[in-house]
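Local shape tokens

___
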Amino acid sequence: MTKVQAPGAPNRDHDTENFPTASLILAKPVRAKVMAFYRFVRMADDIADSESLSSAEKLARLDAMEAALDDPRTSLEEGARMQALGVGTDEARLMLSAFRQDSQQARYADWPALEDYCRRSADPVGRMLLRLHGTEGEAALRAADGLCTALQILNHIQDLVPDREKLDRVYLPQSWLALAGGEAAFFEPGNPHRRDILDAALDRVEELLDRAAALPRLCTARRLAIQSAMTIGLARRLLAKLRAADPVLGRVALGKPDFARELLAAPFLGPTDPVIVATRVSRAGSSFARGMATLKGERRRALWAVYAFCRVVDDIADGAMPESEKRRLLEAWRGKLTLPDCALSRELLLAREAFDIPLAECEAMVAGMETDAADHLRLPDEAALDLYCRRVAGSVGAMSVRIFGEPRAEAWGLALGHTFQLTNILRDVDEDALRDRVYIPLSVLAKAGIPDGPAASIVTHPAFAGICKELAGRAVGGFFRAEAELPRYDIEALRPARVMMWGYRRILDHMLRRGWAGARPRARMTRAEKFRMAVFAVTGK
């Protein structure tokens, strides 16, 4: 029989984990069971991560550990302890399957493959804790799974370099690393694409943490609720640190002050859904947030949900990940619109119900982002451009006027959204070209004698500036019509739209003065204009 033992000192112990599972917060009898489970899976993990054992030796020891779970007379102390306490054997088996995978597989093709690994290597821990504390229900299970997967991926990102150097193991999917020129190029210190890929991965982690946010309030045991809140808080802190620093260039870790702050905050069970969404909006740093700030109470809350939703799906479409991953994530958001599973999707559903926002408008936004998700984007004709604008901007207008309290202005909001999007397209022609996106329709380009080809050659063609000038004329006309039609509606109710319209018009004016021939520095409002916009938001004048 294979002798089961770890090949050396543990890689880490419970007190050095990023996210302890058996903190002193838990009741003593429950903690004893959790520690028995932890010691068993810690040994298995150390075997799988051994630098001295061969793959065959690892598998033999892991098989022997699973056999110990079935043997009431086992000599393996860790297995006997679990049996004596009646804890976690089913969850341990699932985790053993992940550790076997670690013993044989060192790379992952795509994000679903990584999630499947996390489903077995991390999620069973959360489910075991819920079961021990008597918490049931699909919502709690989904929240716990989201938290455990997020913690596992944070560890993978934190340990990118040591995992690769010591174990020849890389968890970030190879299809993602290919966007940086391949695995070797990704790990080169000066790779300019690595930050974007890391941020896209961290966006996925943040979505998982937003799904987990409800967990503390779903736990029936107060102690587990507090531990869950502390763990989520620590995860958000590590997430922020990994956004601010590069784990390939140096170790990024939590410190004692992080643990102390989250321990003090944990009894309050973490931020509520509205606070999480408001934080997302604030972090986005948009000048046009001033338009939203003119609203109060439930109207502001609803508009923040709509804005945050638009930002999230836009970030997916723009993210540094394979097109197939973008489309999978956008399709997942279609499901979230009717079956919310995270803070943002819950807030969006409440906004839709409170202000009678059609589901079709949210679906239109997702469809527009599916257009943006293409690695190579060209629109065939003006009808396609109109449809695109209707989806990504008209939908926002249609949703917003309902929240503003003036649903009669839907047609006005649709038209204004179209004008805003034309302004965006004109502002971003060079930035979009870097992503191989050209929104000027091929039919319009052909009439001007511009052939399809690399985006950079299209936007630098001598005739391109004339097309932009003509499109800007359409946008100017759109603003004039919006101003002329305003008196038909409740002008005060539409103040947020008027504030955003004022800002967009300033940007368009800057572009008209600059033109589109030669260098095209990004058009921005001046400080004085931003101040004027803020005054307008407060006073309506």
